[in-house]
Structure formats: structure tokens, C-alpha cells
Design goal:
- 59% of the residues lie in helices and 15% in strands.
- It is elongated and about 165 Å long.
- With 874 residues, the protein is an alpha/beta fold.
- The chain is built from 31 helices and 21 strands.
Length: 874
């Protein structure tokens, strides 16, 4: 909707007034010339104003074209306005006619500019010749139909020629503009179409006026109202939102064909009309008409010569491009050939001898199917038949063909070919063929490396997972299983002889395992020192277990020879069986869980998965997460168990024991210390225990109570970075003397990674910290390490103390340990004293100190505070 503040509002009002004026002039009657003059002036002035306003909104060529069209409308209005006066004179072509012609030319120029299409000079020349042919053909048709009688009635050739010259010029200009407007992509192309409408109606009006003038009568009313109506339409189009219109899509081939065939169609129609007239004997030779017809023929001949030259030039370019294409293809190692749709070779390049070993002359005239693998022939024949269809039903002009070609040496070479149809306008195919043997080999190598292990040559994890999915999805009967195998102690091989030797050992292990696995089953390297077997053959479950045991024997039956030394390894194996609708990931996980269970139980064994194993793993994972949260939220507490001098019953030290209350539920230490060790949380937990216990014992010592502190260490704590520095910082922060701190280790820790453990403990000993061997007598190399490590104390394991007074062997062993400790000058502490007779036996043996429920139970720090103020009687 146009509002009154819109700058187009006055023009809209003027348009309404102009339209009313045109209608009033038509309804008022009167001479046609005067009526047409009034209507034409009003409509043209309205169009001129609308175009000027539109040029202010538009930009670029559209604005310029609108201004030219506005000027043309004004000049045309001036010519039409003075035409009634000029008609009263005896001049055939008046000044008014010239103004109308100039206005028409300006309108055509503006229409061409608004189209915004730039064309090369040769295209402009073709448009001009086409417009001349179209205009001349229409004149010749009009001559036969009506103008011939007008010519003879006028009996004045000069007057006839001058009278029809302006409309013929307008017709010529209109045909020159039409191709550019129809092919325009400008957003203002609708303005160009309206301009063509004005040109067409003004040409018809001018022709009718010229014919009426030659006849001595007024022009018909219908001819004088066509142009005003077209100008009103132009004014309306100019006020549409041209700048918001999307650019017109490119004109299709139909538009191009129409503009190219229109002149030829008009020439053909004019020729037929003239032939019919001549055959009827009605045609009298008129020099001007004959000359015009001859000019049409001449222009057609010139145009045909130009097109023939262009065609020859294009053929040369196509031939040059074809030759360059062949040379380029052959320079890249491709073989170029020409064949028909039946596969018969017509021409082939010399590259075929280099690539495939055939002489070109031997192949020409033969069929390409004689050298293509029989399995590939049907598909290629179908593709060639599809390409050989008629143009209207044809497939794309080129297709890619992959096939195998037999070389002169008899080998089948993978190839990729591109076939292009209708080369050079003939029913031939241009085929470029490339030998892709190297690329195919590279693809196969990449595919092999993608799904195989580079060290062992076995399928890798990705292949195993995919194969397991395929087997489970297609399983109909039989029992499928997955076996996981881990090499026990393989890490020490890498640490001792290096990773390269470790890879060699993996290769040897893979060969042994491959020999034990059925050929129909899948053996893969899962990763690291783990292997996996997919039992695809089905059968009884015992067969899979037997295979697992054979794998254990294959690994451990004899040592591996690596780096000039023998390395003995064992294997831990887990077996899991597939159930109905079980995902492959679950089956693989179950086998891994069973293998981990076998490893926990000491290795060199086979474990079959049970549902409880997965539940245990999940529980341990949940427990590890809860441990981390408990450490952050300070859910841990420390209890202290007194250690007394058995001779005096005096408390000489306390052993710090960690306790965990998960909410209101007490978690026993044996349930969380193992997961804490596995996850590494034992390191921060042990550091917290160390600092807290040192602070508490230091406070008791400040109250004049000579008491010591004992702490248990784990393997992870000892090997953790900055462990020695952490102990030193805890002592410094709390003020506890180093001699008051005793750190306890078990014998197994001295055996595993003995060199590093002894080095760290020696550094602690140099600080003044005391060392104790906990659970003495249950390890592997107690006496040897007592000699290497400066130990201050040994603690007798409760398993020995529990048999005192009941088991003579345990009593003898306990007495031996006490005597050994005295001989070495060590303090001997008995753990687990729970019965009075155990206490009496230990006193009798001369054991120095003891601890246990009979002596004192573990207690909180408050209990130790009260213990300071009393004496402990045992």
C-alpha cells in the first residue's frame, strides 16, 4: 500500500489522472488522430515521470536505462502531440514523424541499457543482421498481403518509400533489441519487456498511420490507442519494486534457440509467401521489392559464410584440443584409443606398448573385450550400449570404467578408464586408460596395515572387533568364544633388553600361538603384550577351554631366545562364551575381565568368565571413585594401636591405622586399601596419614611422653616421586624427631624392584628414620635383605603368634625369629596377641614388644590422650 508520505504518491495521483484523461479522450469521440494525440501525450508524459522516479531508486545500468527511456517517452510525446498539425500539410514525412522516430530510437536504447547485458562485437553484428532479416521478411510478407495494393493505389513510389521508412526503422530497432532483453539477467528485466511492448505498439501505430496517410484517410482508432496503453503499462512496471527483485536466472537453451531461429523462420515464411504470389500470377515486378528480396538473400549468404568460417575454426580448435588431450594423456602414462560402440579399436596411441607390451598395429581392428577380464565384460558392454543411445535418450557424455586388462606377459592389470562419446561428431568413443597397479597395491597395503599389526603380522584390534561383530550377528549354532591372553612379566623384558628385543619376543610368541589356533579361528594382537582369539568353529565349551590351556603351554613350554639370552614367560588367559543377543563388546570385555582375574591369581592359569567377575570389577571401579571423593571430603580418620614393652607394660609407640566411614557405613581396610593401591590413590592418602599422625604424636611428645610412631608403607608410596622429601617435610612441619618415626615394609616389597626400593629406604634411614620389616617370616628373602638394609625392627606375623601354645612348629619358628632378632641386635615386636598364653610364651622367649587386642585395641586420638594419664596393665 502506498501512503501519502511516500514520494510515489503524487505520481500515483497523476497516473490516475492520466488514465482518466486517456479514457475520457477515447470516450469523447472525435477524430482518431486528435484522440490518439491526446491519449499518447498523456500516457507518454506519465511514463516519463514514472521512469525518472524509478531511476532515482535504481542503480547501475537499470537507472541509466530508465533515464534514456524517460527521455525517449518525452520526445515521442512531443512528436505525437504535434502530429495533428503536421498532418494538415502535404509533406509525406513530417517533423512529427521524425520526433516519433527519434523517441522510438531513444526508447530502444534505454531498453537495451536496462537489460544490462554486454555482448561482444561479433554478437552485435549477428543481432543487426538478424534484425534486418526479420524486418525485411515482415515487409515482404506485408507486401504480398496488403502493401502491394497500397503501393499501386498511391502511384507514387517515392511517397510510398518515405511514408514507410519510419515504421520500418522502428521495426528494425525493435528486432535488434529483443535478443538482449530476452537473455538479460538484470533484476530490471521486466522494465525491458515493457519497453519492447512500447516499441512493438508504436511500430504498429506508425505503420497504420503511414498506410492511412498514403490512402488519404484517417488512421483506424485501434491503432492510435495501442501505444498509449503500452506507455501506461510501462509507467506501472516502473513503479514496481524493481530493486528488490532477484536477479533473473540464466536464459535456457529454448530462449537462445528461439532468438536464433526467428529470423530464419520469417525468411522462410516470406519466401513461401512470395512463391505463392508469383505462382498465382499476381505478382508484378517492383524494383524496390526485388532489391529488398535480393538483399535478404545476400545477407543470408554472408551470414552462412561467416558461420561456415566459424565452424571451420571451431573444428580446428576441436581437432587441436583432441590432439593436445591425447598428447597430454600419453605424457602422463595413459593409453588413448578410439573405438566404436561395439568395442572395435579404430586407433590407439603408442603408449600401449610401453604400458601393456602390445604393438599398436596388432590391436587396431580387434575388440577391446579380447583383453578385458571376462568378469568385467558384461558391465562394460552395458555401459557402452547406454552411451550409444540416441541423443534425446543418451546417458551422460562420459563415464568412468574400472576393469582388469590382460598385459602381453599374461598378468591382469587393474585399470581405470574414461570413455567419452561422440568424439569429433562421429559415432566413436575416446577412451583414456590408466594402469593403476601401483595405486591398487598401495591401497591393499594400506588396508592391510589398517587391520593388521606391524610387529606380529596378526590382525589388529580393529579387525578383531569387526570380525567378532560379524560372527555374532551371523551365528546360528555352536558356541562362539573369545579368549584373551596376557604375557606375564613381559614388562621386565622391555626394561632389561629393550623394546626392540621385546618386539622380537612378541613376534616369536605370535608364531607359537598361531600354531596352536585352528585355521578357521581368528588370532589377533590386541595391544601391548595381549593377544585375543575368536573361536568361530563352535562346538563344545570344553574345546575353547582346551585351546586356552594349549595357549598357556605354547607360551611357557620353553624359553624365548631374545638378545642372546633365554627369557622364560608364562601367560594368563581368560575365556568368555557368547550368549544369545550378546553384543560383541560385552563378549570381549568379559574375556578381558577373566584374563585380569587369572593374572590377579598369580598368572599361568586359565579363568572362565563368571558374572561375579564383572560385578567385582564394577564394584572396584565404584569404590575407586568413592575413594577419590572421600579423600577430597576428608572422610578418613586415623586410629592408633598401642605397642607396649612386654617386660614393663609401658606404651612405647603407637601404630597409625587408617579408617574410612562412607557416610554412616564402616568400610574395612582390606576392602579399600587394594583398590587405593591399584589406582594410585594410596600415595595422597598415605601422605595425609603421615602428616596427620606426625602432628598428633608430636603433640603427645610435647607433653613429656616419650612415644614413637609406626606407619605402614606400600610399594606405590616408596616409588612415588619426592617420597623421601615428603617424609622430611612432614617431620619438619610437625616437629617430630626422625628417630621417633618407624616406617614398616613387607618382605615382598623388598623382592620386587629391590634395587630402587632399597635405595629409597636407605635415604630414609640416613635421615634418622627407623625401618621395620612387617609380617616377618612370610616373605622370600628375609635373611639376605637383613644384610643389605639397615633395619631396626622386625615384626612377627600374627600367623606365627596365633599358634603359640598350640602348635609346636609355629612355637619353634617364633622362638627362632626372636633369637635371630636378638642376635642381630634388632627390636622384635609380636603382632596379633589375643590370648594370655600367647603373651606368657612371648615373655618367656624374651620378645621385646607386642601389640594386639589383648594388649590394646586400636583407638582414636582421644583414647590415647586418656591412656597418657593412666598405666596400661597387661
Amino acid at each position: 500500500m502506498i501512503r501519502w508520505r511516500d514520494p510515489r504518491a503524487p505520481l500515483t495521483a497523476a497516473a490516475a489522472a492520466g488514465a482518466v484523461g486517456v479514457a475520457a479522450a477515447l470516450l469523447a469521440g472525435g477524430p482518431a488522430l486528435r484522440t490518439g494525440a491526446i491519449a499518447g501525450v498523456l500516457a507518454a508524459l506519465l511514463a516519463a515521470g514514472s521512469l525518472l522516479l524509478a531511476s532515482a531508486r535504481l542503480g547501475g545500468s537499470a537507472a541509466m536505462g530508465a533515464r534514456w527511456m524517460s527521455g525517449g517517452a518525452l520526445v515521442w510525446a512531443a512528436g505525437v502531440g504535434v502530429r495533428p498539425i503536421a498532418e494538415s500539410t502535404s509533406i509525406v514525412v513530417s517533423f512529427a514523424d521524425l520526433l516519433v522516430l527519434v523517441g522510438t530510437v531513444l526508447l530502444a536504447s534505454g531498453t537495451l541499457i536496462a537489460a544490462g547485458r554486454r555482448v561482444p562485437g561479433r554478437i552485435v553484428a549477428r543481432h543487426l543482421t538478424d534484425s534486418y532479416l526479420s524486418a525485411a521478411s515482415l515487409f515482404l510478407i506485408g507486401w504480398v498481403v496488403a502493401l502491394r495494393q497500397v503501393y499501386f493505389d498511391a502511384a507514387d513510389p517515392a511517397a510510398f518509400t518515405f511514408a514507410l521508412l519510419p515504421p520500418m526503422v522502428s521495426l528494425l530497432v525493435m528486432f535488434a533489441v529483443i535478443p538482449s532483453v530476452l537473455r538479460s539477467r538484470s533484476s530490471a528485466w521486466s522494465l525491458g519487456l515493457a519497453g519492447i511492448g512500447v516499441l512493438a505498439t508504436s511500430t504498429v501505430s506508425a505503420m497504420a498511420s503511414a498506410v492511412a496517410r498514403l490512402g488519404g484517410g484517417p488512421p483506424p482508432m485501434w491503432s492510435v490507442v495501442l501505444a498509449p496503453l503500452a506507455f501506461l503499462l510501462l509507467a506501472a512496471v516502473a513503479q514496481t519494486d524493481l530493486e528488490s527483485e532477484d536477479a533473473r536466472p540464466p536464459a535456457g537453451s529454448a530462449v537462445g534457440n528461439f532468438t536464433a531461429m526467428l529470423p530464419l523462420a520469417l525468411v522462410a515464411l516470406a519466401t513461401c509467401t512470395l512463391l505463392v504470389s508469383v505462382a498465382g500470377g499476381r505478382e508484378k515486378a517492383v524494383t524496390g521489392v526485388v532489391a529488398l528480396a535480393a538483399s535478404v538473400v545476400l545477407v543470408l549468404l554472408v551470414r552462412m559464410l561467416v558461420l561456415s568460417g566459424a565452424n571451420i575454426r571451431l573444428r580446428r580448435l576441436v581437432s587441436l584440443g583432441d590432439r593436445q588431450l591425447r598428447e597430454l594423456a600419453e605424457s602422463t602414462g595413459d593409453v588413448v584409443l578410439l573405438c566404436d560402440y561395439d568395442g572395435v579399436v579404430r586407433e590407439i596411441g603408442p603408449g600401449v606398448e610401453v604400458t601393456y607390451g602390445y604393438r599398436p598395429d596388432d590391436l587396431v581392428g580387434g575388440s577391446i573385450f579380447d583383453y578385458i577380464h571376462p568378469e568385467d565384460v558384461p558391465g562394460i558392454q552395458a555401459a557402452l550400449r547406454q552411451m550409444g543411445l540416441d541423443e534425446e535418450n543418451a546417458a551422460p557424455g562420459a563415464c568412468l570404467i574400472a576393469c582388469r586388462v590382460r598385459a602381453a606377459d599374461g598378468t591382469w592389470r587393474p585399470t581405470e578408464s574414461v570413455a567419452t562419446r561422440h568424439v569429433g561428431g562421429e559415432d566413436m568413443l575416446l577412451v583414456t586408460t590408466r594402469d593403476v597397479s601401483d595405486q591398487e597395491a598401495l591401497r591393499n597395503q594400506v588396508a592391510h596395515l589398517t587391520f593388521h599389526d606391524g610387529i606380529t603380522g596378526l590382525p589388529n584390534r580393529a579387525y578383531f572387533e569387526e570380525r567378532t561383530r560379524e560372527v555374532l550377528s551371523g551365528r546360528t549354532s555352536g558356541q562362539s568364544a573369545v579368549i584373551f591372553l596376557d604375557l606375564d612379566g613381559f614388562t621386565s623384558v622391555n626394561d632389561s633388553v629393550g623394546h626392540a628385543s621385546g618386539d622380537t619376543l612378541l613376534g616369536q610368541a605370535a608364531r607359537r600361538l598361531r600354531g596352536a589356533v585352528h585355521p578357521d579361528d581368528t588370532l589377533a594382537r590386541w595391544g601391548g603384550d595381549e593377544f585375543a582369539v575368536l573361536v568361530e568353529t563352535g562346538g563344545e565349551a570344553q574345546l575353547a577351554v582346551d585351546l586356552a590351556e594349549r595357549l598357556v603351554r605354547a607360551v611357557s613350554q620353553e624359553p624365548f631366545r631374545v638378545a642372546d639370552r633365554d627369557v622364560a614367560l608364562t601367560a594368563s588367559v581368560g575365556v568368555a562364551f557368547a550368549e544369545d543377543d550378546m553384543p560383541s563388546g560385552d563378549l570381549i570385555r568379559n574375556a578381558d575381565v577373566a584374563m585380569a582375574r587369572a593374572k590377579e591369581l598369580g598368572g599361568r592359569r586359565v579363568e572362565v568368565f563368571a558374572a561375579q567377575m564383572h560385578a567385582d570389577v564394577v564394584r572396584r571401579l565404584e569404590l575407586a571413585a568413592d575413594l577419590q571423593r572421600a579423600l577430597i571430603e576428608n572422610q578418613f580418620a586415623i586410629e592408633y594401636q598401642p605397642v607396649v614393652d612386654l617386660a614393663t607394660s609401658r606404651v612405647t609407640a603407637v601404630e597409625a591405622l587408617v579408617r574410612w566411614w562412607r557416610g554412616s557405613v564402616f568400610v574395612p581396610p582390606d576392602q579399600f586399601l587394594g583398590p587405593a593401591e591399584d589406582t594410585g590413590l594410596i600415595v595422597p592418602l598415605g601422605e595425609w596419614i603421615l602428616r596427620e599422625a606426625c602432628r598428633e604424636v608430636a603433640a603427645w611428645r610435647a607433653s613429656s611422653w616419650d612415644i614413637g610412631l609406626s606407619l605402614n608403607l606400600s610399594a606405590r608410596q616408596i616409588t612415588a616421586p619426592r617420597f623421601v622429601e615428603t617424609v622430611e617435610e612432614a617431620l619438619a612441619e610437625s616437629g617430630l624427631p626422625a628417630s621417633a618415626l618407624t616406617l614398616e615394609v613387607i618382605e615382598e616389597m623388598l623382592v620386587e624392584d629391590a634395587e630402587e626400593t632399597i635405595r629409597r629406604l636407605s635415604e630414609l634411614r640416613s635421615l634418622g628414620v627407623r625401618l621395620a620389616i612387617d609380617d616377618f617370616g612370610t616373605g622370600y628373602a628375609s635373611l639376605a635383605f637383613l644384610r643389605q638394609l639397615p633395619v631396626d625392627m622386625i615384626k612377627i606375623d600374627p600367623s606365627f603368634v596365633s599358634g603359640l601354645g598350640r602348635d609346636e612348629t609355629l612355637t619353634l619358628l617364633t622362638r627362632t625369629i626372636v633369637r635371630l632378632g636378638h642376635d642381630l641386635g634388632l627390636i622384635v615386636v609380636a603382632e596379633g596377641i589375643e590370648r594370655p598364653e600367647q603373651l606368657e610364651k612371648l615373655r618367656e622367649m624374651g620378645c621385646t614388644r607386642g601389640q594386639g587386642f589383648l594388649v590394646a585395641r586400636p583407638m582414636a586420638a582421644r583414647g590415647v590422650d586418656s591412656l597418657m594419664r593412666t598405666s596400661l596393665t597387661v
